[in-house]
Design brief:
A: mainly alpha, Arc Repressor Mutant, subunit A, 4 helices, 2 strands, 11% strand, elongated, B: alpha+beta, 4 domains, 6-stranded mixed β-barrel, globular
Chain lengths: 108, 884
């Protein structure tokens, strides 16, 4: 199953957010980490695909007044989703190690 | 949980509901609301709203096609419907092709007629000031001669201009053979050779503006100078290629009085306009004889007006009576005309919108070629009926085949289909059939348009470039498929599954009555059309072969003979010396269209103030006319060149004798008020010098040896050789003008083109209707044979002969056709009687017309059903029974 670049970012965001991953928070964290504002359409479209590919599960809840009484849809990584992320990361690392002079240290 | 509040506009909300997958709408809209709340705090209401809008668009864009792609029953269902329909169609090739073929023929006929009607209706609808342009007509409401005519006396123009403030401008038009109007020998003054041209008219300079004629060279003032002329673009290209001909001079008929200067070039007239002229000669300062322009006595001018904006044509029409009361009646009274009183009573005016000239000018004498609104209606009705026949075929064939589909419907229902789904499936099928038929029909139209154009004397084409064409045709397809799918769909969908699957279906028997009715309708329509065809052909035959009082065969009309001038007599002598030539007469007046006419009023000498005049034609002919034309003298003698007194001699026809009330016509003196008194020297048999639509009227022949036509009677035999000889003689006399001739019988036949054309159109449609009906009948009979296959086999095993089987299978259908015959006869009779009543001289509808029509119908239907019936009769019964 393929994972697109933007889909990977969204998946990472969902994992990072833990229990609080829904449309608005995902968009906020993406904006914070990448510095770019994703379009809402693209985001939801990606979420829809991720759900369809079963990388995430969802549950509903948490209606608030500012949402006009509408519920939120919370996203959570599935074990399959986690594995897909690991595979993507591995692939990238395997490639990167072969590139001389590439700085692989990550800053904490 | 229902939403509490919403900042989304209703429309946006609806859009999202429609586009987004159902399980995501709530959450996405929730997110949008949350963003809105956040932004409202940070950015303010206005910008938050703006962002909301952008987000909605962004979401919609991302999800636009998701719904259809993934989770749509519609798509799957329609795919399935189409697949099933297609398989059904492909499974039964003969049956499907009959269904499609019949349908396509019907649709093609409808399309052709629609094109025809569109063209007829489009005549003169293109003016910018459409509702300001009118033609003024005279109207006689006298019960004995109700008619309209377009010609007015010349002073009508100043009278209208001076007395009617609601009129912006007035223009007159002369469009019949009169002085230089009509046809002429034409040449630019610097050329040598004359070329025959038609389409000359006299017009007032104002007509360029009134009829919104657009100019290529020159402007709207092109006709303001006396003796100026405007020619059409194509004629300008012909005579003055690649140059601006304004200022060039041309001469007509080698006549020094007919030298004109070209003042401008106009665009070629559009084909869908009454105005089909190539040479416009100005009426500016033109006066045809002394006092003509101010006389209320010579009626030659058609009148067009452009009203001021907001002018009321009906009021204008009422006010126009002033012209009658102040000018025309007083003029006639003053001259002692007894008709003046009748005029005041039965004479009025009609203000006709320019757009009505083409289709609404029945019984109007204006020398223009018209369409006829009745023909448009008739064609429309025929198209409708043929389309109906095609739809009926579809319905009949679909329900007849229902038994084969019943199991399918039963299974679908058992598996949970509801009625509406099955109805939808059959509608899809109807649509598919219609669509395929329609494409075939467009193909047929493209192929047959040239033939149809010849038949209808039109120049039609499919308007592919119009934006409305595709939507219109699509709407047409949808309507037709709806109409033809309606009954079969509901009929088929109503099957009860248990019964069907048990095999208890009544096999369409209940429905056979309905089908029978439809077959009767189809054949009745076909038979009516067959009757129409026979009657129009008989009328045409009658017109062409009736004794018409002159011999139209073997007469050559050499046109343009007026340019011979004083060489005419020598030319005639030279011609008659040829062995193939019997006789030749020099005249302008012949009993076929396109030759000169001269209407006069005649009184007995000295009774002009006491009697009403007799309206009669006065033709100038020479002493050879009667022998050349083969017209019989019943009393008196012919003209003689040797008697000087014959210059005032006149020969009248029997109809005129009756009208004048002469007991002993020979020697009587008659006068037409402006020429010397004539004395009658002979009486001729009535001959048809006008169309068969009118009774033979009074006609008089006066002596004169001048004319534009040399009528030559030749002997039967080698026509080509005769023509070559005549041409040789002509070229000797007129080296600069090529000979132009027509045969009189051709010209005569051309007068009845309309009848001929109507006959051909009826034939075409009758054939189409019969084909469509027969296709249906064929499929029905094939179906019936299939249904009763086992019964027939059992009968054969038990000893039935082929004849008996044949009789059994055909008798039902023949019965239906006979009923159709009975129904069609009165309809056909009624229709044709009203058509024939337009002709003063016409054939009677005799009983054999019905017999022929009926026999044709029965015979054709028998042939149609017999192939299947015979097949059934000859079939080896074992084959059918073994498979049980």
């Amino acid at each position: 199953m393929k994972l697109g670049a933007f889909e990977e970012l969204v998946l990472l965001a969902i994992g990072a957010l833990g229990d609080d991953a829904y449309g608005v928070t995902i968009k906020e964290i993406l904006k914070e980490k990448t510095g770019k504002k994703p379009s809402i359409g693209a985001l939801h479209s990606a979420l829809y695909r991720l759900e369809d590919k079963e990388f995430v599960t969802t549950h509903e809840g948490g209606a608030t007044a500012e949402r006009g009484g509408r519920r939120k849809k919370y996203y959570q990584l599935t074990s399959y989703g986690i594995r897909i992320l690991e595979e993507a990361n591995e692939l990238r690392m395997a490639f990167s190690r072969n590139i001389p002079g590439l700085n692989l240290k990550t800053q904490e | 949980m229902s939403p509490i509040n919403s900042h989304l506009p209703k429309l946006a909300d609806k859009l999202l509901q429609w586009i987004l997958p159902d399980h995501m709408v709530e959450f996405i809209v929730g997110d949008l609301e949350e963003y809105f709340a956040m932004r409202q705090e940070k950015l303010g209401l206005l910008r938050a709203r703006l962002w909301l809008l952008i987000d909605v668009i962004s979401v919609c864009g991302s999800f636009a096609f998701k719904k259809i792609r993934s989770n749509s029953n519609y798509r799957t269902m329609f795919k399935y419907y189409f697949k099933l329909s297609w398989r059904n169609m492909a499974k039964q090739k003969v049956y499907s092709s009959i269904k499609i073929g019949g349908f396509a023929l019907g649709i093609a006929a409808t399309l052709l007629i629609a094109l025809f009607i569109r063209d007829e209706l489009s005549f003169d609808k293109h003016y910018k000031n459409q509702d300001q342009i009118y033609r003024v007509l005279n109207e006689s409401t006298h019960p004995e001669h109700m008619e309209r005519w377009s010609a007015f006396p010349p002073p009508i123009k100043p009278a209208l201009e001076n007395e009617f403030p609601e009129i912006q401008s007035v223009g007159r038009l002369i469009n019949f053979d009169w002085f230089d109007a009509g046809s002429n020998q034409f040449r630019p003054i610097e050329e040598k050779a004359n070329i025959y041209e038609e389409g000359f008219v006299y017009v007032d300079p104002e007509m360029l503006d009134i009829l919104e004629i657009s100019m290529v060279y020159g402007d709207q003032s092109a006709l303001d100078n006396p003796k100026s002329m405007v020619i059409s673009k194509s004629k300008a290209d012909k005579y003055f290629p690649n140059q601006d001909p304004v200022g060039k001079q041309i001469i007509l008929n080698e006549n020094d009085n007919s030298i004109y200067t070209i003042g401008g070039v106009m665009e070629d007239p559009r084909t869908n306009s009454f105005f089909q002229f190539d040479f416009l000669i100005t009426l500016k300062a033109e006066e045809f004889w002394e006092g003509e322009q101010t006389s209320w006595g010579s009626w030659n001018y058609s009148v067009f007006v452009k009203m001021k904006e907001g002018g009321d044509p009906r009021q204008f029409e009422e006010k126009l009576l002033v012209i009658r009361d102040d000018y025309i009646v007083p003029y006639n009274k003053e001259r002692g005309d007894q008709r003046a009183d009748d005029m005041a009573k039965y004479y009025r005016y009609d203000v006709q919108p320019v757009g009505d000239i083409h289709l609404h000018s029945q019984v109007t004498h204006d020398n223009l070629k018209h369409g006829d609104i009745d023909t448009v209606w008739l064609f429309g009705a025929v198209a409708f009926f043929i389309l109906l026949l095609a739809c009926i075929n579809f319905i009949n064939l679909s329900t007849a085949k229902s038994a084969n589909r019943a199991k399918e419907v039963g299974m679908q229902k058992v598996f949970g289909s509801v009625k509406s789904e099955i109805v939808r499936q059959f509608f899809t099928e109807a649509f598919l059939y219609t669509m395929v038929s329609f494409l075939v029909a467009v193909g047929i139209v493209l192929v047959s348009l040239p033939f149809f154009n010849t038949l209808a004397d039109k120049n039609l084409s499919i308007p592919f470039s119009e934006w409305w064409l595709v939507p219109l045709l699509l709407a047409f397809v949808l309507t037709v498929s709806f109409l033809s799918g309606l009954y079969p769909s509901f009929y088929l969908a109503a099957f009860r599954p248990i019964q069907v699957i048990k095999g208890n279906l009544s096999r369409g028997a209940k429905n056979s009555k309905f089908r029978g009715t439809l077959v009767v309708f189809q054949f009745a329509t076909s038979i009516v059309l067959i009757i129409c065809t026979i009657v129009t052909y008989r009328q045409m035959d009658f017109i062409l072969n009736k004794k018409i009082g002159f011999n139209k065969d073997q007469v050559l009309m050499i046109q343009g003979a007026s340019t011979l001038g004083n060489k005419a007599e020598a030319f005639r002598n030279e011609l008659t010396r040829l062995s193939a030539i019997e006789n030749a007469a020099y005249t302008s007046y012949l009993p076929v269209d396109g030759t000169k006419r001269d209407g006069n009023s005649f009184w007995k000498e000295g009774r002009r103030k006491e009697d009403k005049g007799v309206g009669a034609q006065k033709w100038r002919v020479d002493e050879n006319y009667l022998t050349t034309m083969g017209t019989k003298l019943v009393a008196g003698r012919n003209f003689s060149a040797d008697r000087a007194s014959d210059s005032t001699a006149i020969i009248i026809n029997e109809s005129m004798v009756k009208e004048m009330g002469f007991e002993n016509p020979i020697g009587q003196k008659i006068t037409n008020s402006f020429e010397p008194t004539f004395h009658v020297i002979g009486v001729i048999e009535d001959f048809h010098f006008e169309s068969f639509e009118r009774e033979v009227g009074p006609l008089s022949l006066a002596y004169g040896s001048f004319g534009s036509i040399m009528a030559v009677r030749f002997q039967p035999g080698n026509t080509d050789q005769m023509l070559a000889q005549v041409k040789e003689v002509w070229d000797e006399f007129m080296p600069n003008q090529s000979i132009r001739y027509t045969f009189m019988d051709d010209s005569y036949a051309r007068m009845y083109d309309q009848v001929n054309r109507t006959g051909k159109v009826f034939t075409l449609f009758a054939v189409l209707a019969v084909i469509v009906a027969c296709l249906g009948l064929f499929a029905l009979s094939a179906f019936m044979v299939e249904q009763r296959g086992k019964e027939i086999s059992v009968r054969k095993v038990l000893g039935a002969s082929t004849t008996q089987i044949f009789g059994l299978l055909t008798s039902n259908f023949v019965k239906l056709v006979l009923i159709a015959v009975v129904l069609a006869l009165p309809v056909g009779y009624y229709m044709m009687r009203s058509w024939l009543s337009d002709y003063k001289y016409h054939v009677d509808i005799t009983w054999d017309v019905y017999v022929i029509a009926g026999l044709v119908a029965v015979f054709i239907s028998l042939i149609t059903i017999s192939s299947e019936s015979l097949k059934a009769g000859w079939m080896n019964p074992v084959k059918k029974l073994r498979s049980e």
